[in-house]
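Q: Here's a chain of 236 amino acids. Please give me its 3D structure as tokens.
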Amino acid sequence: MLILVALCLFTTSVQAQDTPPTASKKHLTKLPGLVIDHKNGYLDISGKVVLRDGDWLELLLCTPGTREHESILSTAARPSHIHLGLIMLGLKPGKPMTAQKVGEELKITQASGPLISVDLIYIEDDKQQIVNANKWIYNKNTGNDLPDNLWLFAGSSFIKAHDQNIYRADANGSVITLVHFGDDMLARQTQVNSRNDNGQWQARTKNIPPLGTNVTIRLTPIKTDQKTLKTENQGS
């Protein structure tokens, strides 16, 4: 509840400076760079391709000026706005992976949160293409695609700086990640983090449209009984 209150207060402050939400239709809510479709139960983010052949991929989606060197897509939408949009669709965020030293041991708490499917929509040869996000990513050790297009709504976290609450994903660009950074908004169910991934994920260049292509990233909440995720272990 405290996180939700902080997010609402933070977003309200942001909206006072930026464009406030608008509703062109009764079932749509718009924020800069994203549209929440309440009727159909999904959220669309406006993004673009910023990387096609990276050899050390750690994110699917980041924000400008953060991690474009290791992310296929970038969006100008604020991660805190995306977070709020998912709450408006009825989701309750979980938590990113955390590591805490207990005595001589490092205690790892796995990421948690409701499941979100991620699909990518773009125009190619004047035709609309819709693909599962995992088809753009593969494991260099096996040659296999990322196992599925499901992420956890981990929800990032807040830190206090200069008497202000800062949403960490806004600051660091960790919107949709492939390995854990600890501030992930959408995270994989994996034990792999940014320190031990060994560059296992790479972009499947042949499936990715040209640099600069506009892409809509569609986030759709998934009922937990519809799909069971398998934990992605390093090297799998």
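Q: Can you summarize the key feature?
A: The CA atoms of residues 94 and 112 lie 5 Å apart.
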